[in-house]
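Reminder to self: tokens first, then the designed residues, so the page reads top to bottom the way the pipeline ran.
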């Protein structure tokens, strides 16, 4: 643990690492569809929506002249295309807004709140997510996530894995990169953080993408900590 003695803050990937976005959205939309009389393959919608997530952020990167676009807006744009592709008809603007805001109403994995609460006794804890500030704030209220502050890609006008996001988080906290630990269930996120000098912790979420998940089933890098859940992470960090 000697090389982690300087760590003062833990920052967390959120979608998949802290919250179970897939099960949360499918359950939410299924209940809502039954009440509204809307029939759709909600699993296909949710999986398709997440599948275009990275590409939607790449469009923002490719067109800096258009300015930064928050994730809520990207989610809405992707949703409108998917609804047409999946032939889900009869949705009003209010319906599309409800579905888009589903990303604000995600439940955490069972170990998260207790693990975060333990980590908070010793460290600054914050999301470092591509979700926008309003999304992450509303999600924290909904899921009872005990963050000390909300850090979002929106603050830095750069989506992960752009270096500006990781280094910006350290800068906002007045910490050196090596005093910050990135926690994620995604190897690529940790690789980007590690290159910039941040410490790293991998927590596997092997059911994030459902039964057909093909990657991030295990740690694929030389991370400082590999833990089975946030409880083990808290214990390894002395909390």
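Designed residues (239 positions):
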């Amino acid at each position: 643990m000697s090389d982690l003695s300087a760590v003062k803050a833990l920052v967390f990937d959120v979608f998949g690492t802290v919250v179970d976005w897939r099960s949360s959205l499918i359950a939410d939309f299924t209940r809502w569809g039954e009440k509204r009389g809307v029939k759709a393959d909600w699993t296909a919608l949710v999986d398709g929506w997440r599948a275009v997530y990275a590409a939607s952020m790449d469009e923002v990167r490719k067109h800096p002249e258009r300015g930064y676009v928050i994730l809520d807006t990207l989610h809405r744009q992707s949703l409108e295309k998917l609804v047409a592709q999946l032939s889900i008809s009869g949705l009003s603007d209010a319906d599309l807004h409800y579905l888009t805001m589903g990303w604000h109403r995600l439940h955490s994995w069972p170990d998260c709140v207790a693990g975060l609460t333990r980590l908070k006794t010793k460290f600054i804890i914050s999301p470092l997510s591509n979700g926008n500030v309003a999304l992450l704030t509303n999600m924290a209220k909904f899921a009872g996530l005990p963050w000390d502050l909300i850090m979002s890609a929106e603050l830095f006008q750069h989506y992960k894995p752009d270096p500006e996001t990781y280094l910006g988080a350290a800068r906002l906290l007045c910490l050196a990169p090596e005093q910050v630990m990135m926690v994620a269930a995604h190897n690529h996120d940790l690789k980007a953080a590690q290159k910039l000098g941040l410490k790293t912790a991998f927590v596997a979420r092997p059911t994030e993408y459902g039964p057909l998940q093909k990657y991030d089933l295990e740690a694929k890098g030389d991370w400082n900590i590999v833990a089975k859940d946030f409880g083990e992470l808290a214990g390894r960090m002395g909390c």
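The longest helix spans residues 21-36.
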